Amino acid sequence: MSTKLLEPLLVGSYSIAQKFGGNANTYYSENGLKGHPGIDFFQGYDRSITASHDALVYSVMNKDNPELSKYRAVCTIFQDNGKWYELIYGHCNKIYVKPGDVVRAGDLLASIGNTGDVYSKGLPVEEDERDKPPYPGNHLHWQLRELMRVSSTEATGQYITGAASVPYRDSEGYYFLIPNFSNGYRGCIDPLPSLYSPSGWAKIPYYIKIVSRLAAVAKGRSS
Question: 5-222 has which fold?
Answer without folding.
Answer: Glucose Permease (Domain IIA) (2.70.70)
